[in-house]
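[READ THE FOLD]
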Amino acid sequence: MNNRISIGGSLLLSAMGSFAQQNDRPNIVFIMTDDHTAQMMSCYDRRYIETPNLDRIANDGIRFTNSYVANSLSGPSRACLLTGKHSHKNGFTDNTNCVFDASQQTFPALLQQAGYQTALFGKWHLESLPRGFDKWEIIPGQGDYYNPDFIEMDGDTVQVKGYLTNIITDKSIHWMEHERDKAKPFCIMIHHKAIHRNWMANTPELKLYEDKVFPLPDNFYDQYEGRRAAAEQEMSIIEDMDVLYDLKMNRPDKTSRLKERYESYYGRMNAEERAAWDAFYEPIIRDFYEKNLTGRELAEWKYQRYMRDYSKVVKSLDDNVGRVLDYLAASGLDDNTLVVYTSDQGFYMGEHGWFDKRFMYEESFRTPLIMRLPKGFSRKGDVSEMVQNIDYAPTFLELAGMKVPADIQGVSLVPLLEGKHPKNWRKSLYYHFYEYPAEHAVKRHYGVSNGRYKLIHFYNDIDEWELYDLQADPHEMHNIYGQPGTEKITRKMMKELHKLQKQYDDPIESKL
């Protein structure tokens, strides 16, 4: 299969500036996970777990404290970062009925044609097959944690023995060490399924965190007053988290909507893996059904089980990030390699009583972003400017010495990596979520945030506005839209919203 894309020569400009020499252009190791929220990284939040290898990246490099996505959903987020464009421009607005046009302009394709070796291992989740890569091996759809299938470039689908997070790392290190053209700079995308639902830990991690009691969020029992869209979702730990599928309390005499899906995942384990799994879970299953929990006891039991399972999957991920960092150091590549770690969006760890993402509220709108910089950059510490996942593509292109195409909507982060604080840096961010009706029933909405205030419009089968003062109400519990005294702020935010819709060519209100 030929993965090279023909793109107009006007977009493929020669290397320039301090990165003009082929051998001086930095390598890019772009590690991305699925549903890994900043709350569950100790370089951002020390309440829950330790992530020492992710912390290595932050401690040796930079941590973005105001990093956000344009659409908090897996496939759309990936399309945004690949193209540097909002969902309505790249065409992949939701996971239900979209196929990504992989022939469109993407940063891997541009890097490849500029002389970079490019590779992708792991999650793609865009329905089409990748282009613009010298090597790729992707999991079908969401993939499986145990003994997963991989689609290869020749079109074959093969099953690989082992735990998915380990396998993706194995394939990535093998390509860097044995398969790439070492005379060229490279960009590798190491894109994990972890920490996606249903949080199936590797067997060596099964017993971790079992003695830990995670603190319950203050708004776990949120009643959603004044927030109709928040009240009508279906992502409640109490109401919607499936005991058999999500929490693994499967038993032959029990049924649920997702029982067959769980048994499909469980069925991929080999005899040794299944024995270890059963030895761990069977006592918990027996105890759970004997207690016959109800009400708040059941809700908080589900929360603790969820937090423990999620944390175990993070532990395996963190270990594998450490393997990549150790390889780069041992091979002498770390000096001239940009290491990026991020997630496709944030996630709810019980805040508002939820799991999952989708909403423009802070826990899912935000995404972690840490970088260890290549030679030529000395900046360390926190970056507070507002950044978005549409900014990754232009950043990588500028680091490669290329001119950023004019139709890319993101902005290069290179000035921030250099320690600059541009006076004309963006002061607000635009967001648009489309996937409704669909799983979790989160209404379609768009909005704007300037860091202090956030204005959101829920539309389609609903017409509700929400306004939050993030300084006075950081957990977004009090919708102040329409309240006396907010008129000036509302006008200001509405003006900013319309400005960004015009800037990004998303005239949504004319379509309602």
About this structure: The chain has two domains: 9-198+307-419, 430-511.
